[in-house]
Amino acid sequence: FGSVDNEGTRKPRDAARRLRADPEVDFPVDGEMQADTAVVEEMLNGTYDFSELAEPANVLVFPNLEAGNIGYKLLQRLGGAEAVGPMLVGMDRPVHVLQRGDEVKDIVNLAGVAVVDAQEREDL
Questions:
Q1: I need a surface site. Which of 7, 20, 58, 83 has the fewest CB within 10 A?
Q2: Residue 66 pLDDT more than 70?
Q3: How far is residue 121's CA from residue 116's CA, in Å, rounded to a whole number?
């Protein structure tokens, strides 16, 4: 989708490429696009009829931590989205970080993610 080629656009493009190549990924993966296009069905269907998505995206990949945090907080606070995170990956043990201002539901959601992480590691 993208017409810009820089570090910020290459990261999400590479993430999409890796997901598409993974045989265990069983959900549609699309390339980089503007956030409003990804989440507004009329824009997605009208502008990107060739998109892999049948409905608005429910996962967004951002090029860096700062952009991701801005996007996730805006979706959560202004858009009323149910946001779970931030999630840490690559750790030896299941661990996640709570943020200043987290509500009870945020704590419960991250605790649930940590429990599932721990259960999955028992199977390894």
A1: 7
A2: yes
A3: 9
